[in-house]
Amino acid sequence: MKFFAVFTAFLILMHGYIGWRFIVPAQLRRFHKCIAWGFLFLFPLFLPLTFQFLMRGINTWWSDLSGWIGYISLGFFSLVLAFLLVRDLIWIIAAIMRSMIAMVKKATTPKPASNPAPGNERRCFLIQSMNLGLLGTSALLTGCGFYEARRRPALVKVSVPIYNLPKELEGLQIAQISDLHVGITVKRDYVERIVRQVNDLEAPIIAFTGDLADGLVSSISDEVAPLRDLYAPYGKFFVTGNHEYYAGVEDWVEEIERLGFTVLINSHRTVNHRNANFVLAGVTDYSGGRFLRSHISNPKRAIEGAGPGNVKILLAHQPRSIFAAAKAGFDLQISGHTHGGQYIPWNILVELYQPFTKGLHRYKRTWIYVNRGTGYWGPPMRLGIPSEITLFTLTGLRTSGQA
User: Cα dihedral sign for 180, 182, 183, 184?
Assistant: First the structure.
């Protein structure tokens, strides 16, 4: 409830700032300005209403409509806000510089030349033109972002060099999907496309690194049902993301197991491939312990009892697990959660609280790969950060000094 209260307050402040910068200087009659303010403040109401529908298991066409309006408007107005903040920051810096120059001229010039300020009409025209330009650019980017978010996810192939990888495991492949967020705008048809795309890879292992859905099992089970058709000879594995905890994690774990996944809750499985073993472990979400004490994320416990010398791979929703994973001796961590930032300005904020946001990185002796998300959360928008399905190929690395 605290999150929803803070989020709603943020929406109101965001729309209030936008109204102050767009409606107040607009050359409109008082009546028309009141209408504009009222219309603007309708949009912050849709998302809190949508969240209430999700928490109560209401899944109808009008709850979906509320979500579509709320999420698209959030994407559009967040772009407007970003452009406004940049513009206003430039204006503030320019005003400070003009004031400093004027002070210097006043101190050094006995009779400064008069520079009449631009006429009020010209200033209003410039502001209105710029405001219309910001709105038009934001609308265009919203449309482009919508197209990018709804298209087929990109297939990203990643080779991961593992130190002293047994030759029997050379070329072993793992397919990863993450952050589908099935719910208001991501439906069964999208899930079916993902299932076909992943099955076409014929990977021996499928890893799903959390955030399957937004909402209660009772209202979304039919939308996620196609995941039952995912097939991998060595199994398909799942770890919880933070969104599983928002709508009853225990119910979702049961549902995901019914879909044929092995849910790794701070545990591991030993997989034999061509007479060579490797360990596939999984931890609960980094924040899981705040919701359920038995779900405190623990990479060290996840590997307890695993045979020494085996290649160790960890599935962990959040990249922040890398520090404990490296300490526990994992060779590779596969994560999601960040969506790669999804679009400006959120990509900047994501980098403030996650050590890695997308792609392959090395932390000490442990590799970490962060998937950009196979779906999206919130606004159906992606700008320059496409969704992805990842196909990992393990390759040998014979000397520890190489990277």
Answer: positive
Shared domain check, 224 and 137: no
**CA gap 402, 198 in Å, rounded:** 32
CA 359 to chain centre: 14
In angstroms, the CA 279 to CA 322 distance is: 17
Three-state DSSP at 245 gives helix
The boundaries of the domain holding residue 358 are 153-397
Tell me whether the omega of the peptide bond preceding residue 345 falls within 30 degrees of 0, making it cis. Answer: yes
Asked if 88 and 192 sit in the same domain, the reply is no
36's tokens: 């504009």
Q: What is the pLDDT of residues 349-390, one digit of tens each?
A: 888 889 999 999 999 999 999 999 999 999 999 999 999 999
Please report whether residue 76 resides in a domain.
yes
Q: Which residue has the tokens 């496409």?
A: 386
Paired tokens of 391:
């196909």
Supply the pLDDT for residue 230: 98
For the stretch 137-163, pLDDT in tens is: 999 999 999 999 999 999 999 999 998
Position 401 scores a pLDDT of 42
Alpha carbon separation from 222 to 46, 126, 188, 209, 380 (Å, rounded): 24, 53, 7, 20, 21
Beta-bridge partners for 236: 206
